[in-house]
Write a structure and sequence with these properties.
alpha+beta; BirA Bifunctional Protein, domain 2; 2 domains; two-stranded antiparallel ribbon; 9 strands; binds 3,4-dihydroxyphenylalanine
Length: about 350
């Protein structure tokens, strides 16, 4: 009887040695340790043994069960280690190879200038006010004191929609009306950045699309001195504390009086070069005191408040800064140009 038990152990251990994978291991477990295994059957039949053999047979049976269980665990470990070894051999990975470089994008040169402009105006207390690219004729012209047939409209020819009176804005100035109508009668201090469009023959100096950054401050007691001081301060923050500015009289229908601001050429320091066309000055922006009619159209009483406005072109600023000679580069989508910034 006990011999049968010893033989059973030997056979089971021999079978375990032959097991090479986890499926075979599971099958072995069922066959040798399962409920209908020879060992389980033997243990179940203990009662049929003569009483004096029973304790020893039972004890030996349990020992064999434990021995098979630990042999199973050991075999499992061995198989796992072999598995790992195999995958380490077959899936060799050279961690010393150099990585593949990630192609990093960058900000468009216009975005870089825009962000710089935002920061400077934000530091001076101006909020960004977003306004629409598709405008009504009324906002783009009429409410800005440019009535139909006004000759100034010729300066700003644009793309018209099929609905009458709908157009792509030619400048960011119509945003002034939107901002004023939202804030009036409270004071307002905003910049209005965005894309503008003009119906132009495309040349190195003119494009059909470009950015502008408009500015607007309206409130009680705002003076021409505030306008000049604010613009000169902007120039110093933008181009450095030593930059010199000059103001020239100009005309815009929506401001009175109107001016243009130049900064001293940062390339030649005012001595004269090709960029400043030997004038020593670079034209940077247009500005003026908001015309009373425009204030009224924005919902303000020109007798109690006044304000100033200005408009500048970030592409022009970028062109001056980097010596870019052709404005078509900005929207030409040529990486050889864009990757230089
Ligand atoms: N809108 C003008 C343009 O497109 C620029 C401009 C000039 C804006 C004077 C202003 C301003 O707000 O006061 O050329």
């Amino acid at each position: 009887m006990l011999e049968r038990l010893e033989g059973l152990e030997k056979d089971a251990l021999a079978a375990l040695e032959a097991v090479q994978d986890s499926a075979a291991l599971a099958a072995w477990k069922t066959a040798c340790l399962g409920r209908s295994s020879p060992l389980a059957t033997f243990m179940g039949d203990l009662g049929s043994l003569p009483a004096e053999q029973r304790p020893q047979a039972g004890k030996r049976g349990n020992e064999i069960k434990r021995a098979l269980e630990s042999a199973l665990a050991a075999r499992e470990e061995t198989l796992k280690a072999a598995d790992l070894e195999r995958s380490l051999q077959s899936e060799k990975l050279d961690v010393t190879l150099p990585g593949r470089p990630v192609r990093r994008g960058r900000l468009h040169p216009s975005s870089q200038v825009l962000r710089r402009i935002y920061t400077v105006w934000a530091d001076m207390g101006f909020q960004i006010y977003r306004s629409r690219n598709v405008e009504l004729d009324e906002y783009n012209f009429t409410l800005l004191n440019i009535p139909p047939h006004h000759p100034a409209r010729d300066m700003w020819d644009t793309f018209y929609g099929t609905d009458p009176g709908v157009l792509l804005r030619t400048h960011t100035s119509p945003g002034q009306i939107h901002a004023m109508r939202e804030y009036a009668p409270e004071p307002v201090r905003v910049i209005l950045p965005g894309m503008c469009f003009r119906y132009e023959q495309i040349t190195a100096r003119s494009e059909i699309q470009f950015h502008q950054v408009e500015g607007l401050a309206v409130g009680p007691g705002i003076t021409f001195a505030n306008l000049k001081g604010t613009l000169a301060d902007f120039a110093r923050r933008m181009w450095g504390g030593n930059v010199r500015t000059q103001f020239r009289a100009d005309h815009f229908p929506f401001t009175e009086p109107s001016l243009e601001m130049d900064i001293e050429c940062f390339l030649c320091g005012g001595k004269g070069c090709t960029v400043c066309k030997y004038s020593g000055w670079l034209e940077i922006l247009g500005a003026g005191m908001v015309h009373p009619t425009v204030l009224k159209n924005g919902g303000y009483d020109p007798k109690t408040v006044s304000g100033f406005a200005f408009g500048m072109g970030p592409e022009r600023i970028a062109m001056l800064r980097h010596g870019i000679e052709d404005i078509r580069n900005f929207w030409g989508n040529d990486l050889r140009f864009l990757e230089q910034f």
